[in-house]
Design brief:
The structure holds two protein chains of two kinds. The N and C termini of chain A lie far apart (71 Å). Chain A contains 13 helices and no strands. Helix content of chain A is 73%, strand content 0%. In chain A, helix 1 crosses helix 10 (224-234), helix 2 packs parallel to helix 4 and helix 3 (62-86) runs antiparallel to helix 9. Chain A has one domain: ABC transporter involved in vitamin B12 uptake, BtuC, CATH 1.10.3470. Chain B is mainly alpha-helical. Chain B has helices at 12-37, 51-58, 67-90, 98-115, 124-150, 154-174, 209-226, 228-238, 240-245, 250-277, 288-298, 303-327, 333-348, 350-353; strands spanning 2-6, 39-40, 45-46, 354-358. Chain B has a two-stranded antiparallel sheet with strand order 1-4. In chain B, helix 2 crosses helix 12 (303-327) and helix 3 runs antiparallel to helix 10. Chain B is globular. The chains are: A mainly alpha, B mainly alpha.
Chain lengths: 309, 370
Amino acid sequence: MISVDIVVLTIVSIIGATTPLLIAATGELVTEKSGVLNLGVEGMMLMGAVSGVGATIATDSWILGLLCAAAVGMAFSLLFGFLTLTLMANQVASGLALTIFGAGLSAVIGAPLVGKRVHRIPDLEIAGLTDLPIIGPIFFGHDPLVYFSLISLAAVSWFLFRTRAGLALRAVGESHDSAHAIGYRVIRIRYAAVAFGGMMAGLGGAYLSLAATSLWAEGMTAGRGWIALALIVFAAWRPLRLLLGAYLFGIFWIGQLAVQGLGLPIATEFMGALPYLVTIIVLVIISRDSTKFLLDAPACIGKAFHPTA
Amino acid sequence: MLTLVPRPESSKRMMYLSPIFALSATIFCGLVIFSIMSFDFATFTFTSNPFDPLVNFFYTPLTGRSGLTNLAMKATPLVLIAIGLAMCYRANVWNIGAEGQYTVGALAGTGVALAFYGVDSWLLLPAMFIAGALGGLIWAAIPALLRTRFNASELLVSLMLVYVATQLLFFLVYGPWKDPDGFAFPESRVFHTAARIPQLFEGSRLNLGTPIALLAVIGGWLLMGRSLIGFQIKVLGAAPNAARFAGFSEKKVIWLTLLVSGTLAGIAGLIEVAGTIHQLVPVISPGYGFTAIIVAFLGRLNPVGILLAGLLIALSFLGGETVQIENGLPKAAGSLFQGMLLFFLLASDVMLNYRIAWKRHRPAPRKIAQ
């Protein structure tokens, strides 16, 4: 039956659209839980996307491409960390700087890569399971990063809420002065959280250039880094809601493409604008209750820490 | 080891020295990057003089007959937008969607110009200016409304609206506003003379937009430095609790700063299409709205500082184009320069509130939590 095939294909493409958002948002969730707001996700994703393609072409290995993207994303986030954690610069301004710088630098180093194709990250083939009808392609036929996105979210959730180190990280995000007073290394913990966020943003970007497509294009993230930031607000800093939000957004993203494909008399530009409009609407709905919003957000988010004693 | 010691009050001297530090560090890094790019590691020699692109970046654009004109024309939208953004940032209102407000301002002005195509009236241009200002204002009113009414982050909302504005531009320029005699190119009709901003001098491309930007600098200075509302904006940004005790309305300040910055960005967009491009095309900005964020910070959120910063960043746009033509480097070298400058600026701004001191020993905090 054709209709079943279409449904399966749609679900597979929804997973593909969701994964880069989910990976980047999972990283940023950890960063924000430690009390640091890094608005540079878009810039780090772009750097991950371009370095992933560059390294894959140079080494002919997508694994090295991904590792390179993760390392570049992390290096970029440490630049932000140095500014905001060591030098106590304004986090909003520094995050914007990271995005502007990342957009410029990725365009410069990506210029010779434009138009070159790489091999897509291959899908996992699990003997027997991938060939099952319907269930096979939906659950067992994806590239490794799809599974990585789900596993890493589960791991982050476990880490944050079930381990002592995760408790320390949350404590630093809720009240850095108290955490410092009882002996936690606030700056060190935040550096680690920022670096993890950068690594995941780099991987999320590389997903776009190595798995969702197989090429580099200037500005190819198209605001996904910012949408990842909005998703965290939507999720009220909770991992499970993050998963839900990311998939809802993925359904929406594919839905608008599908409607464009149907050839209805709706301007493609209108459908193209819809994901951003929906993000705004969702933000409005979530933020409406300001007391709840303040309770959900890590209390120290965006605040610089300088030990006084 | 080196440690940072808080200053009793923030340093005025560092406020002005910090941009100079940042610029020096950026130029130095630029030289290093250009050196690496012109160095041949196989023969261990420079294939070209690394100072060449540096000169082409910072000096060559200013030479020639139209050098200063080009600089002023690039600086005009940057300064206009940054004046408004500085007001927002002073109040801790994060409008980062000026690019969208600029675009909608340009669209609104173009709409008037095309609706009255061929009408030869002196009223047309003022009507276009009003439309452009309103366009930017409306686009900024959306985040203001959603922030004051629903507590939604103005930062994310204003940014999302940039993408929406771009789609609106594409829709109009590929659709209803496409030039009927334009061989299907995605361009609007070329504006007729009455819909173009007049040139200041015969034979120069410099138009009335530049004096308008200068007026905005003066207006911004008066508003921020010499008026009660400017004072309220500053207090609200620096000490929100004090502002609330004093009875200053936070909502009023959010509305005002967003509307003023949206209006200025809209006017900047209108000046670009009616003064420079003279028609609507799919790309009407090299990222002025985003770059103006850098201009605002580099200018210390101060109107006069913004004027100087606007000229410097305008030079980086021209420099990027020059090194592309003369040295075959990517044009994005300009935005790389802008990003580096902002980084170094933010880094050296630590000196505003802290001084570096040498401490021999700092006892590590002991863990007693476990």
